[in-house]
Design a protein that fits this description.
Blueprint: H1 10-17, E1 20-23, E2 32-34, E3 44-47, H2 60-65, E4 70-74, E5 88-92, H3 95-108, E6 113-118, H4 123-137, E7 140-142, H5 152-157, E8 166-170, H6 178-186, E9 190-193, H7 201-204, H8 207-214, H9 216-220, E10 227-230, H10 234-241, E11 247-251, E12 258-266, E13 269-276, E14 279-285, H11 290-305, H12 310-317, E15 328-331, E16 337-341, H13 347-356, H14 358-361, E17 368-372, H15 382-395, E18 400-404, H16 408-417, E19 425-428, H17 431-441, E20 447-451, H18 458-467
Parallel strand pairs: 2-3, 3-4, 4-5, 6-8, 6-9, 7-8, 9-10, 10-11, 11-12, 16-20, 17-18, 17-20, 18-19
Antiparallel strand pairs: 1-5, 12-13, 13-14, 15-16
Helix pairs in contact: 3-6, 4-11, 4-12, 8-10, 13-15, 15-16, 17-18
Length: about 475
């Protein structure tokens, strides 16, 4: 069998997914795969998926016109495309399940060692850190963007070629069962769970539900393969131990196999001594915050499980570059500093961002200004979580608090409960209004933190501030730290 684009045939694909040939030549060779008819290249296989707002079956003819060599469609939709001469059509009961089945076949026919990473926070940074470590040792691929679901993970698996020694796959979830299915598809050599926190509560109910959902990885991974797990997370450890799997723990606590000592912040990043079993080496991680130390330890634990030396782990970690919108420090026109953490938000990552601020504040004399938007998918805990977010902002001594979104009132109430004066808290209806206000009040010594779930759009505030010319005679509101 040939899990190589340019060699794999329709017949092999039908065999892998339990489908049936409807028309065309099953010996047709496929050059690639796409679920988006707009991105079809000549010779590709078009995979027709159906969602809430789209149906790929409506675009089979479009894919054909753009040079697709074939398509996989759902039973009952055979009559959707008109007569397409020479076009291979395979029929299955469920195209989404079939996509995962084909990815599982592809993964089993490739030699790359696979690491699958999940958790409530830190998945993406851990993935990127581990990728840097693995590329010290060989060629690797990783999940790009947010392709971490039942569609995105298979599409990432299809990028594994004979050249890669490693693949790092991020696994996200919104409801029970997703991590189990993603684990079945990825069949990881090593699993990683970064932590459990208040994220995606709408789908799983509460923190215990999050823990159960995340530890589906432990239940589904091959029993002979290790799981790297946050040993400092009591709820996660409790949920994982019930499976009786082989575990490698990481954390700040020295009882963990992989741990960090002598942790301290510097202008260039955070320094610590990495301890991995009997090995120990100093690391300067080009990122800030103890949460990034935890991400580095998770990546290190996975590398240890793969047999990578401590020296190579350190080389990789020190090559890491923070993702745009993930606690990125940017000097604005006029000298103030923006901490852009607008990529996403939940209570766990907000706490990590606020805890990291002292590293940026120590050499500045201005105020800390926080712009905060909604943290999505918290279900029945939303109001409580946003009120607590406001109290957390007040607790760091912020001089000015700007709020936006459906839960702005709860954030403001929490900040007031935490001791912030009414004149230090401002509400905004649009991100443009928030950006305009920040442009008038921010001065050269100030530090501005922006954070919210991605759909709130605070990244647009960050973009506006980066382009804005410094304003003379800015308003002074709130106190300095």
């Amino acid at each position: 069998m040939s899990a190589v684009w340019g060699e794999v045939t329709g017949r092999e694909i039908i065999s892998a997914i339990g489908g049936k040939s409807f028309s065309g030549d099953p010996m047709t060779v496929m050059m690639g795969l796409s679920t988006d008819s707009r991105r079809i290249s000549k010779g590709d296989l078009f995979w027709a998926l159906q969602g809430e707002n789209f149906d790929g079956h409506d675009f089979v003819e479009t894919a054909f016109s753009k040079g697709a060599a074939g398509a996989v469609i759902r039973r009952g939709r055979e009559g959707s495309p008109a007569s397409l001469p020479g076009f291979f059509l395979a029929v299955v009961e469920d195209t989404l399940k079939a996509l995962g089945d084909f990815a599982s076949w592809w993964r089993k026919n490739r030699g790359a060692r696979v690491v699958a990473i999940t958790g409530s926070a830190g998945k993406t940074s851990t993935k990127d850190m581990l990728f840097e470590v693995l590329t010290v040792c060989g060629m690797a691929i990783k999940t790009e963007g947010n392709l971490n679901n039942l569609i995105g993970l298979p599409l990432t698996v299809f990028r594994i070629s004979p050249k890669e020694s490693f693949a790092v796959l991020e696994m996200g979830m919104n409801r029970p069962g997703e991590i189990a299915r993603l684990t079945e598809i990825a069949d990881p050599d090593v699993g990683v769970i970064t932590n459990v926190g208040m994220a995606h509560l709408e789908g799983v109910g509460d923190l215990e539900g999050v823990a159960r959902a995340k530890t589906e990885l432990v239940g589904k991974i091959n029993p002979s393969n290790p799981v790297v797990i946050n040993g400092d997370d009591a709820l996660l450890m409790k949920a994982a131990k019930g499976y009786g799997r082989k575990m490698i723990t990481f954390g700040i606590n020295p009882s963990n196999l992989v741990n960090a000592r002598e942790v301290h912040e510097t202008e260039k990043g955070i320094r610590f001594r990495l301890v991995a079993g009997e090995e120990s080496l100093p690391v300067t991680l080009p990122a800030h915050g103890v949460h990034n130390v935890m991400n580095a330890l998770a990546a290190s634990g996975a590398a240890v499980a793969l047999g990578i030396s401590c020296s190579d782990i350190v080389k990789g970690l020190e090559r890491f570059k923070a993702i745009k919108g993930r606690l990125s420090a940017i000097t604005l026109p006029g000298g103030s500093v923006l901490i852009d953490d607008t990529y996403n938000a939940n209570p766990l990552s907000l706490g990590a961002a606020l805890d990291a601020l002292p590293a940026f504040v120590s050499s500045r004399k201005g105020r800390v200004i926080v712009g905060l938007g909604d943290m999505r998918e918290l279900g029945s805990e939303s109001r409580k979580a946003h009120r607590e977010a406001g109290r957390m902002v007040a607790g760091i001594g912020a001089g000015l608090f700007l709020v936006i979104g459906d839960y702005a009132e709860e954030m403001a109430e929490g900040a007031a409960e935490g001791g912030m004066a009414a004149e230090q808290i401002e509400h905004f209806a649009t991100v443009e209004e928030m950006a305009e206000r920040l442009g008038r009040v921010v001065s050269g010594e100030d530090l501005v933190l922006l954070k919210a779930s991605r759909k709130v759009g605070l990244d647009r505030v960050a973009a506006i501030l980066k382009e804005r010319k410094p304003v003379k005679g800015v308003e002074k509101k709130g106190h300095a730290l």
